[in-house]
Amino acid sequence: MRVREKGDRGVVQSVVLFLGVSVLSGALAAGLAMPLAGLAGFTTEKTSETLQDLPQQFDEVPLKQKSTIRAADGTVIATLADKNRVPVKLAQIAPIMQKAIVAIEDDRYFEHGALDLKGTLRALAVNQTEGAVQQGGSSITQQFIKMSLIEKANTPAEVEAATAATTQRKVAELRYAIAAEKEFSKNEILEKYLNLANFGDGAWGIQSAAQHYFRVDAKDLSLAQSAMLAGMVKSPTAYDPTNNMKRSKDRRDVVIRRMLQLKVISVNQANLALKQPVINPALVRKNLLGCANSAYPFFCDYIVAQLKENPAFGKTPKDRATYLKTAGLTIRTSLDPKIQAAAQKSIDEHTKPNDQAIAAITIVEPGTGLVKAMVQSRKYGNGKNRTSYNYNVEKSYAGGFGGFQNGSTMKSFTIAAAIAKGYSINYKIPSPSPLHFEGSKFSTCNGSITVPDDYAPTNSTQNVADPTMIQAAQKSTNTYFLQLSQKVGLCPIASLLKSMGMYNAQDGEPLEQVASMTLGVGYITPLQLASAYAAFAARGKYCTPLLTTSVRDAAGKQVKIPGTDCKQVLPEAAADGVNEVLHQVMEPGGTGNKLKFGNSDLAGKTGTIQEAKAVWYAGYSSKLASAAVVGDADPPYKRLSGQTLDGRDINDASGSQTAGPLWKTAMQNALKGYPTTHFTAPDDKTKNGDNEDLPYVNGMNPDDAANKLRQAGFQAEISTQQVNSDEAAGTVAYTDPRRRDGAPAGSTVTIFVSNGSRGNNNQGNENGNNDEDDQPDGGGAPGCQPWERNYPNC
Which portions of the sequence form the region Disordered (predicted)? Predict the structure, then answer.
């Protein structure tokens, strides 16, 4: 700060004038634009007491500056502001503008101190002649103090106190003005004044005003433009050209003539300026503040909601909201306008704003968690076919819809948990339809659960009777993955889901461990699913979704925010196996084969929830991962069939045919410009499994066999169904997996008990060389299998 010398004439003059006028209360009243009656009873003694209580210094208030939210390439997404202001230095303000404001507001500004004696006496004379307050004697410094006190106010009551027409407030304001002139030079005060001033129509400060009305910087303002703006300070609303062009011109012309009178400009300059139009209405910029006016309102809203949770921005939500709008922050985000445009193009091509069904897409970058795009089919706002819900995010955010059940996209996590546990991507399981699970148990993190007697799931597509993991994924075979999840256990799947950011988006709770978990459970958002699938693309590295990449304050200093948060949640080799399995889903024979494009390796999975109330397609390359959903978002939720999408009725909703095209168009355009990429091929262990030898238990007592299996490091379960076998009735007929195939350590081995119907009673030898009976036997009627509900009497 610049401090004046004690002998500074202006300050001495101000102090003397302040004391003198304070004692001569009548003059003070006139000088401060107050009626003489305003000081009735305000005695010399009270004046003295008031002077002793007045502040001895002026504490400058930080300017409330607009904050900007920017995309990854620096383009502005939105402006957040309490007051739309961009402070500039005096050197960045046109000299003619400086002269205009001084001419009309305080033409002796550079000659007097905090109080203009001539102006005060002139105001007194006019007011006494008119019999009322017609003129005020406020200097630019006094006006600056008043503006500052209003700027400091945070509530209506504080604003009222800062503008109250009381003598005490006026005296305090003058004392502040004297203190300010000790602290700052005239030029510094003029700079602060021009940055604080209200120029109407939402423009605060000279730079914002110049941009708002004329689309020029403050340094490039002309005489006519400067005069118009200078004239507005007296009454920003009354002289706003967007409200009343004539009144604004009249006021502008008053300023020009005053400048001519003071010989600041020539007659020729004045005449030319008077002929200029006040504004060109076509150039006036709208004050599009807030996320509602953003090109990406849903993304913007979600950013703001996350920032409001950051304690670095204030102690309370209100403090943080105020900070965001007043601190002049530059908020850089992950949004990529090109990828966002690709996703929006897909929405535009495959949906209509008045569709009954809604669609949403999120695109994430693997290995970083950067959220590159977030789009949906319903527009932002109130009214018909508009919404304030963001269908891509969780419900804990005020505008979040909270997701949809995600159906068979969950099978990918069962695949991942199984491969991580040692199951081969070619692991086979007989997978009939329907498959009866009555009485079966599924292990959980807290013990086990028993399947209801009436649980008999079916497959929606045909497959081979004994599919591999790849074949089951290609056809999304429900009964295969139910059995696989039973063998792996629900706890490893649940743990993996938690580590990959998959939780119930409605209430934030972990996804429920139930028998049907692998077929879809809870509510999941496109943001969650895209981020989780991105972990597969990144070879098992999961990154928390990242939308805000940096925040800088008005001085350019970094503000602390959460940064990239990545961790290895799945071994690379296991992720390679998942990528191979899901890659085959998009190859011939897979449910996603029609969605394949380009030369890069792609992987994906369909998802359809019960009664097809929502359908999904989630997939990825090694560069981008995306999840697309089409669902019913209007309770009571109903089937998509019969609802409209892209202006047409949906006949048969499915992940591949309904959500798939949205995913394909978005990703095909988003990946343009990226190099061709390929997944890392799975190693031999992942292809063939990491199986341990199973002990030979055929012909043993089932309980003894179970103990033997447990001692060997496996979990054991005895089936309640007895099967045809050469083994003695009540002994072990065979196990699943078969002994010759082995099984991953710690996995569940199911023991099937013989009913002795074959009558051979051959128990085999102790060394297990008789392996013919170590596999299921159909027996009974043709097509009658041990897993059939009515076996052996099918």
Answer: 676-696, 733-794
User: What is the model's pTM?
Assistant: 0.78
Higher pLDDT, 689 or 613: 613
Taking the C-alpha atoms of residue 763 and residue 217, their distance in angstroms, rounded to an integer, is 95
pLDDT score of 95 more than 80:
yes
- Nearest in space to 424 (alpha carbons), one of 588, 541, 581, 591: 581
CATH topology of domain 690-794: Trypsin Inhibitor V; Chain A (3.30.10)
Domain 9-283: state its class: mainly alpha
Question: CATH 1.10.3810.10: which residues of the chain?
Answer: 9-283
Taking the CB of residue 448, how many other CB atoms lie within 10 A of it? 14
- Candidates 613, 610, 608, 612; CA nearest to 636 is 613
- Tell me phi and psi for residue 354, to 5 degrees: -100, 15
**How large a percentage of the chain has pLDDT more than 90?**
68
**Could you give the residue range(s) of every CATH 3.30.10.20 domain in the chain?**
690-794
CB atoms within 10 A of CB 712: 16
* Rounded-to-integer distance, Cα 682 and Cα 686, Å: 6
SS3 344: helix
Greater confidence (625 vs 788) lies with 625
Give me the residue label for tokens 């089937």: 639
* Residues forming beta bridges with residue 617, ordered by sequence position: 606, 628
pLDDT band at 774 (very low <50, low <70, confident <90, very high): very low
Q: How confident is the model at residue 208 (pLDDT cuts 50, 70, 90)?
A: very high
User: What does the alpha-carbon distance between residue 360 and residue 346 come to, in Å, rounded to a whole number?
Assistant: 10
